[in-house]
Design goal:
3-stranded antiparallel β-sheet; about 260 residues; Chitinase A, domain 3; alpha+beta; 5-stranded antiparallel β-sheet
């Protein structure tokens, strides 16, 4: 991996280049459709394309693809398999995670919860909807007694008619991102952060919990190893992209922590 120049963001002319290779404006416009939830979708699109170009150039350098060839998902997999060392989670790692996250490994847990939903419909800008949700969350944290009245007034869920109540929930009753938020914690009351799902932004109140049975370690060891492996791989890719960026000349984008769709 040859050092060229330290990354120098430069957006004065709008040009986007990686080691002198220009990324066309049309590509940025296309990538925008994949960045709807980013605070600054255009900046996120530029970063994502820079990361992909860094990886493409590294694949060419290693002779994994020909110069000018399409850099597709298969090419990315070959590059990472060749150039990335990802440690495997040990049994001790899995046992430690199991002991440190007891709420994640129980069955028949029951949660009584309520929510206020700010639905994403396409009629309102995403940033505006999220800002409204964040503002309302702060109001609920300051005055939790107003939760039900606020749900009736602003929630986009049919549960608004009963103050946002979802009744009792079991694991598997809701989408994964919502389930993780309500089951993988012992918090009660209004949760201190917005929950983002495919349906929109949720403010969640945990009214009551009934704990189920703890699953034995042997029954979940493989799942834990898989989860830890994905987590370690994610971090390794972030570091890998950071190293590539530090050895490249980048114009028109600031990678920051090198987060993008290829490293999430």
């Amino acid at each position: 991996m040859s050092t060229i120049d330290q990354t120098v963001p430069s957006e004065h002319d709008g040009a986007l280049r990686v080691n002198g290779v220009a990324i066309e404006a049309a590509s940025i416009d296309d990538e925008l459709t994949h960045q709807p939830e980013a605070p600054d979708p255009r900046a996120a699109a530029r970063r994502a394309l820079v990361i992909r170009e860094l990886l493409r150039q590294r694949a060419i350098e290693l002779k994994l693809i020909a110069d000018g060839a399409t850099f597709d998902d298969a090419s990315l997999d070959r590059l990472l398999d060749t150039d990335l060392n990802v440690p495997t989670a040990t049994r001790a790692d899995c046992e430690r995670y199991y002991e440190n996250h007891p709420a994640s490994f129980r069955k028949s847990d029951i949660v009584f919860a309520s929510h206020i939903l700010f639905a994403v419909t396409g009629r309102a800008p995403l940033a505006l909807v999220r800002n409204k949700a964040e503002t309302t969350l702060q109001q609920m944290l300051a005055a939790p007694g107003t939760f039900e009245d606020t749900a009736r007034e602003v929630s986009n869920c049919p549960s608004a008619g009963i103050g946002g109540s979802l009744g009792q929930l079991l694991r598997g009753d809701s989408v994964p991102e919502f389930e993780r938020a309500v089951f993988d914690t012992q918090d009660t009351g209004v949760l201190p952060r917005i929950i983002n799902t495919r349906f929109g932004f949720h403010i969640v109140r945990i009214d009551r919990r009934l704990e189920g049975e703890r699953l034995p370690f042997e029954s979940v060891e493989a799942d834990i190893a898989r989860f830890l492996g994905e987590h370690v791989r994610h971090k390794a890719i972030q570091q890998y992209v950071t190293v590539l960026a530090s050895c490249a000349r980048i114009e028109g984008a600031d990678l920051g922590e090198s987060n993008g769709p290829l490293v999430q």
